[in-house]
Amino acid sequence: MSGIIGKKIGMTSIFSADGRNVACTLIEAGPCVVTQVKNVESDGYNAVQLAYGERKEKNTPKPLIGHFKKAGTTPKQKVVEFRDFRVEFEGQVDMGKTVISDQVFIEGDFVDAIGTSKGKGFQGVVKRHGFGGVGGATHGQHNRQRHPGSIGACSWPSRVFKGMRMAGRTGGDRVKVLNLKVLKIYPEKNLLLVSGSIPGAKNSFVILEK
Fold first, then answer.
1. Hey, which residues does 192 pair with through a beta bridge?
2. What whole-number distance in Å separates Cα of residue 50 and Cα of residue 207?
3. How many CB atoms lie within 10 A of CB 76?
4. Nearest 5°: phi and psi at 66?
5. Could you give the dihedral angle defined by the CA atoms of residues 179, 180, 185 and 189, in that order, rounded to the nearest 10 degrees?
6. Any residues with CB less than 8 A from the CB of 151 and at least 6 apart, and which?
7. Residue 157 preceded by cis peptide, ω within 30
8. Could you point out which of 2, 91, 115, 161 has its C-alpha 20 to 30 Å from the C-alpha of 97?
9. Cα angle value 8/33/42 (rounded, 5°)
10. What is the structure's pLDDT at 90?
11. Angle 197-201-207 (CA atoms, 0-180°, nearest 5)?
12. Phi, psi (degrees; rounded to nearest 5) at 38
């Protein structure tokens, strides 16, 4: 698996070769700095640690400052580890090297995108799970249109089963979207155009895996 860290710029649409209007997401992918290279001998597995986004040194913990200095780079905002980087990157992912989007992806590749979905706070069952509500305001139902209804039996099992869909905090979860196609690469601006939507708000971090 190989990949890169990026930032979601926003959504747009383009026309495909056959005239279809395709919704797509613009991502600023990299440049990322290699801050650590792990191997089987010392760590038990092969992996490459990439860092992305500038961060003020005064807001960076001292252990991380030393970690970044060892790689010969400035403090970064986001650090992600990619296991089993592809063989063709041998020698290109040494400590301190810079990885850019067109080194990892080519147009036509299919990638998986990982992001943090938008947080929506505490929500009811209609918004959170798509419930239809109790129904019309008849037979005394004057204030229960968006309520969940029954959540369990009485004498048995005398409890509410785990996993019952109820109101609660919505969003803010790690979400992975599979098989998004790389439609266009702009290497001079480190931009990728991928098909479909990606979880998260604008300017949120996105992890792309191949």
1. 27, 185
2. 11
3. 21
4. -65, -35
5. -120
6. 160, 164, 166
7. yes
8. 115
9. 120
10. 59
11. 65
12. -105, 150
- Quote the pLDDT of residue 2: 81
Amino acid identity for residue 176 in this structure:
K
Handedness of CA 119, 125, 127, 131 (dihedral sign): positive
Question: For residue range 34-60, what is the model confidence (pLDDT) as tens digits?
Answer: 898 888 888 888 888 899 988 898 998
Integer Cα distance of 67 and 35 in angstroms: 8
Q: Cα–Cα distances in Å, from 104 out to 40, 74, 91, 96?
A: 23, 23, 14, 17
DSSP states along 27-90: EEE--EEEEEEE-HHHHSS-EEEEEEEE--GGGS-HHHHHHHHHTT---EEEEEEEES--GGGT
Task: Copy the structure tokens of residue 21.
Answer: 């209007």
Q: Which of 210, 177, 30, 186 is nearest to 111 (CA)?
A: 210
Burial of 59 (0-12, 13-18, 19+ CB in 10 A): exposed
Strands of the 47-54 sheet, one edge to the other: 76-83, 47-54, 32-38, 98-99
pLDDT at 137: 66
Angle made by CA atoms 61, 62, 64, in degrees to the nearest 5: 70
Closest alpha carbon to 12 in 27, 28, 29, 24? 24
32, two tokens: 């990322």
- Taking 50 as the pLDDT cut, the residues of the chain under it are none
What amino acid occupies position 185?
I
To which residue do tokens 């249109």 refer? Answer: 145
One-letter amino acid of 87 = V
